[in-house]
Write a structure and sequence with these properties.
This protein is of the alpha/beta class. The chain has 13 helices and 6 strands. The chain has 2 domains: 7-99, lambda repressor-like DNA-binding domains (434 Repressor (Amino-terminal Domain)), CATH 1.10.260; 111-299, Endonuclease, Chain A (2-Layer Sandwich), CATH 3.30.870. Helix content is 51%, strand content 11%. The chain has a 6-stranded mixed beta sheet, with helices on both faces. A hairpin with an 8-residue loop joins strand 4 (239-243) and strand 5 (252-257). InterPro entries: Cro/C1-type_HTH, DUF5753, Lambda_DNA-bd_dom_sf. This is Transcriptional regulator with XRE-family HTH domain. One of its GO terms (molecular function) is DNA binding. Residues 117-295 form the DUF5753 domain.
Length: 301
């Protein structure tokens, strides 16, 4: 008989972590456990999909945490997988219901592309975030003025009110760096991201000062990859690797795009991005020296 651990079986820290993780990470937790139970029962995705009147593709999306759960579907799958323990079933059902609770960012749904919703959810529930940004300052480290200048440039023609909601969303996301239970951020910035004058001299002065101040936070580390390094292993767009707070979940590679994000999940691709991110940290200027480099840039404004 398969059995999902009830909350009474978990230590207090594990339960608290799951509840603070947010709906996106909770979906991943429920999905990962459903996959474990399915594989333990020797049942194919196709058979599981048939049980809930869905395709094997939907089962795959459920197990990856890419879509929400209907309580009836979870109940039917648990029955199919042989989970008869009441406490275990109820524990997973409670978590599935919590995973369906909208995150705070859903209030900004009108300015969030569908595929970016998962990105924000992962970001807000992560324990560790590693980023590479070749053109602009990492979004979590942007000042309001810098974010506004970028938002207006990317969304030309949009109403001022709409763009201000985008700015408000971005600045609200940044609170994750200082809220209780803060995430650890390792950001690698290309020198061009700091040299590109966004919003004028005053905006850039404020942004560079903010980076210097943020680097003093115990949970934030900033590296700069200088022009002098030359070519490097990722001459493309930004990368983010999110580590969920639950140890039973794998890290997620995210590739932010203009209108959303891509999530490579083939292991070979994930390994490649890991290698690239590790190489960037090695090639970049050490953290303390990066702060001095930013201070030198500030003098130019």
């Amino acid at each position: 008989m398969s059995r999902f651990p009830a909350e009474d079986d978990l230590d207090e820290d594990q339960v608290i972590d799951h509840r603070r993780a947010g709906p996106t990470v909770l979906r991943m937790l429920v999905g990962a456990e459903l996959r474990r139970l399915r594989e333990a029962a020797g049942i194919s995705r196709g058979r599981a999909g048939y049980e809930i009147r869905a395709s094997d593709t939907k089962i795959s999306r459920l197990e990856l945490g890419r879509t929400g759960f209907k309580p009836r579907d979870v109940q039917d799958l648990l029955t199919l997988y042989g989970v008869t323990d009441h406490a275990g079933r109820e524990s997973l059902l409670v978590m599935a219901r919590q995973a369906s609770t909208p995150g705070w960012w859903h209030a900004y749904a009108d300015v969030i592309p569908a595929s970016l919703e998962s990105y924000i959810g992962l970001e807000q529930g992560a324990a560790v975030i590693r980023t590479w940004d070749p053109l602009y300052v990492t979004e979590l480290l942007q000042t309001e003025d810098y974010a506004r200048a970028l938002v207006q440039a990317v969304n030309r023609g949009a109403a001022d009110e709409e763009n201000e909601r985008r700015v408000a969303l971005r600045t609200r996301r940044a609170r994750v760096l200082t809220d209780p239970g803060t995430v650890t951020l390792w950001a690698v910035l290309d020198e061009s991201a700091l040299r590109r004058r966004v919003g004028g001299a005053a905006t850039m002065r404020g942004q560079l000062r903010h980076l210097i101040e943020a680097s003093a936070l115990p949970n934030v580390t900033i590296h700069v990859l200088p022009f002098s390094h030359g070519a490097h292993g990722v001459m493309g767009g930004p990368i983010a690797i999110m580590r969920p707070p639950a140890t039973e979940l794998s890290d997620v590679v995210c590739l932010p795009q203009l209108v959303g994000a891509i999530y490579p999940d083939r292991q070979a691709d994930v390994d490649r991005y890991y290698a690239v991110m590790n190489a960037l940290v090695v090639d970049a200027v050490p953290a303390a020296a990066s702060v001095r480099l930013i201070e030198d840039m500030l003098k130019e404004y």
